[in-house]
Amino acid sequence: MLHTINSFLLPLLLILSSFESIESSASPDTRNVKIGGAKPPNLKLLECFEFKKNYWIVGHAFHTSSVQFKDECLRMCLTSSIRKAKCLSAMHVPNDDECVISDQNQVTKPDLFIENDTPGSFTVNFFRNICVDPPDSEGANRFEARLQGYKGGEGIIEFAQTSGRNTQVMVVISGLKENSLYEVALLPGGSGEKGGKCHKKARVDGEEKTIMTLETDHTGMAVEPWRNMDLDIFEENVVGLTAIVVENSSRTIVDCGPIRLASSSSSNSSSTQVSSSEKSEILFFSTGLSLILSVFLIM
C-alpha cells in the first residue's frame, strides 16, 4: 500500500514543482493576467497593435532603444503621441533586445515594408499601431486633451465623432501608480485657464462627469483602446471642458488638461515632422540596416 501511495504522489509533486518553476520564470509582462472580469492592462496594450512576424519598415525609424520585452517597445510607441511624435509602427528585435519605432507603416509606405528573408539568423516582430486613428476616422471631428500632473504623470485623451454616430475615445497615460484604478472625468471650466481648472483643486467635489475607469499595469501605464461612448462631444461642447484623471481610492486629481481641437488630422495621411538631429539618426539607422541586410545576403 505504501509503495502504491508513493508511486502516485511522486509524479504529482513533480507536476506541481514544474508549475512553480514556470510561474517564477514568467516575465513581468505576462504575470498580471486576470481570470474573468475586466481585461488586464497588458491585454489592452496589445489591442492597440496588429502583429506581423519577420517584417519591418526600412529607413523610417525616428527612435531606437534597448529593451528586453516587446511590451516595453509597444509602450514606447504609444507614449510617443504624448510628445506629439506619432508612432505608426514598432519593431522589436528580441535577439538584440532592440526596439525601433517608426512614423510609417505598411499602409503609408508599402514599398518599404519588406520581409526578413533570413529568419534563421534573427527575428523581427513588427507591430502596426492601430490606435493612432479611430476605426471610423473618415470625416470625424477630432479633439484631444494633453494631460500634465504635478506628480509627474502625463498622457493624452483623444475624442473623435462623426455626425450621427457615437463618440470614440482613446486614452494613453503614463507615470501613474502601478496596478491601481483611476477615473477619467470631464470638469467644467474654461480651457483658456493655464493648465486647466483642475490645478486649482486637489480633489473632486461632485461637479465632474466620469466617462470611464482605467487600470494601470505594473509600470504605472494605463491604456484604453478606441471605444464607443455614450457621449456627444457636440452637445457637451467639450472644447469648454477640462479632462481630469482621478485616483479612485483617494479621489485625488493627479492629471489634467484642457480639451482642444486635435493638432493634426489622420496620421496615416501625413508624416511626422522631425528635427535635423532626428533626421541624422534616421539616416544612421537606415545605413546600418542596409549594411546588416548586405552582410546576411552575402552569408
UniProtKB/TrEMBL annotation:
Domain named Apple: residues: 48-131
Record Pfam families: PAN_1
Keywords, comma-separated and alphabetical: Signal
InterPro entries listed in its UniProt record: Pan_app (IPR003609)
Classification via SUPFAM superfamilies: Hairpin loop containing domain-like (SSF57414)
Domain of life the protein comes from: Eukaryota
Secretion signal, residue range per the UniProt entry: 1-24
Name listed for the protein in its UniProt record: Apple domain-containing protein
Gene designation: Cni-C34C12.7
